[in-house]
Amino acid sequence: MSLWFEAARGAVVLNVVLLAGLATVWARNYRSHGARHTLGLLVFACVLLAQNLLALYLYTLHPTFHNWVYYSAPIAQRGTMAMNVLELVAIAFLVKITLE
């Protein structure tokens, strides 16, 4: 298996887990405080969660997309992995700030 492809898929899985946690916390905060800023964060988390769930589906279950990415040039795999890992870093930072 391609290391770059598996790293991209692993980053997407972690993104889904972290975003689900953030959405839960922000939904709870919105219910208790009703702040529009918190609602914005909740909507942001839900949209990004939907995007990552789609990516997870494409990487895992969609045979055409999976083969296209898996057998593409290494530069394309590294680029895909880099985007997913950078997104993971940003989401992890939001988790850190939210939980403090």
Short description:
The chain is mainly alpha-helical. The chain has four helices and no strands.
Question: What can you see in these coordinates?
Answer:
The protein is mainly α. 90% of the residues lie in helices and 0% in strands. It contains four helices and no strands. Helix 1 packs antiparallel against helix 2 and helix 1 runs parallel beside helix 4.
SSE topology sketch:
Blueprint: H1 3-33, H2 36-60, H3 63-70, H4 74-99
Helix pairs in contact: 1-2, 1-4
The helix/strand series, from N terminus to C terminus, equals HHHH
| Number of helical segments with 4 or more residues | 4
Name the beta content range.
under 5%
Q: Describe the sheet with the most strands.
A: none
What structural category arises from helix and sheet content?
Answer: mainly alpha
| Rounded radius of gyration (Å) | 15 Å
Taken from the alpha-carbon principal axes, the silhouette is elongated
Beginning-to-end CA distance, first to last residue: 38 Å
How many runs of DSSP E, i.e. beta strands? 0
Features:
mainly alpha; 100 residues
